[in-house]
Amino acid sequence: MLTMVKVVWAPAKINLYLNILKKRSDGYHEVETVLQLVDLCDKISLKEIREGITLSSDNSTLPRDGGNFAYRAAELLIGELKIKRGVRIHIDKHIPVASGLGGGSSDAAAVLTGLNELWRLGLTKIELVELGKKVGTDVPFFIWGHTTALGFGRGEEAVRLEAMPRWYVLVNPGLEISTKEIYSDWKAISTQRDKDINLFISTLKGKSTGTLTSTGTLTSTSKLSDLLYNSLEQLASARYPVLLEIKRELKDLGVKGVLMSGSGSTVFGILENRREGMKIKSRLCRRREEWEVIVNRTLEVK
After folding, report:
1. Count of the separate structural domains present in the chain
2. Does residue 194 register a pLDDT over 70?
3. Which domain holds residue 90?
C-alpha cells in the first residue's frame, strides 16, 4: 500500500505596520496592518494514518493537542468534511515560538492547504480561508500566500500589496510573549490617529526608497524606516524591557528601521543587503549570545 505523505513549508511574517483602532463588541480588536512574508520557514510533514491526529516536533515546548494551531486545523478540517482518515503531523520548528512572527498561524495554514492537496479535497482558497478564520485571525493571511498584504478587520482580511523585496535582521531574545496579555493592556487612548497607512503603503511600493540592484542591494531605506509603526510596541516594552535593549543594540550597529513584530518578542530591522546583515549578526552574537539572530529576506512566492 502506498503511504501518502505531503511536505509543506510554513513561512514567518513580520508586521511592518500595526495600528490598533478600537476594541470590538466581540472582544477582538480592529486593526490595520501591513504583513510581510519572510523566508524563515517551519517544515511540516503530513502522513496519512487510519484515524485520529498525532503531532510531533523537534521542539519539545510545542503542545501536541488542540492547544496547537496545526493540530486544531487538522481537527477542524476532518470534522467539517467528515473525513474518515487521520493524519500524523510532524513540525520541524525554525520559527521561534510566541515571537510575533505568526509561526502557529502559519503552521495551521500549511496543514489546511497541505491536507487539501494530500487528500485531493478540491477546496478553493476561499473555502480554506473560511476554515482558517475558525482557527485564528492570522491564518487566512498565510492561506492567501501574499508576499505582502494589507490586513484589516480582526486581521483576518488581507489584500495583496505590491512591494519591493528587502533584507531583514530578526532578533529574538528567547521570550514567549502572550498575544492576549499584550492586547489586554491596550486602551483606546493608545491609538495614534496621526498615523497614515496610505503614506506607508505608497512608500512601501518603492516610490521613495530606491530600487533593487543586480547584486541584491537596496538603495536608501530611510524613508520607509521613518514610517514603521506598531501600536503594541510601547506596551510590550513596558512589560519586557529587553525589547528596548534589542532596539538600542540594532540602532547602535547602524540599523535604521527597527520595530517589534506583532505583540513581540521578535524585533526586526531593515537592511540594505545581506552582507550588512551578516556583519550585524556577527557583532550582535558576540555581544549577546543568548539572543537568536536571523538574517533573511522577503519570501519569493511563486
Report:
1. 2
2. no
3. 5-160
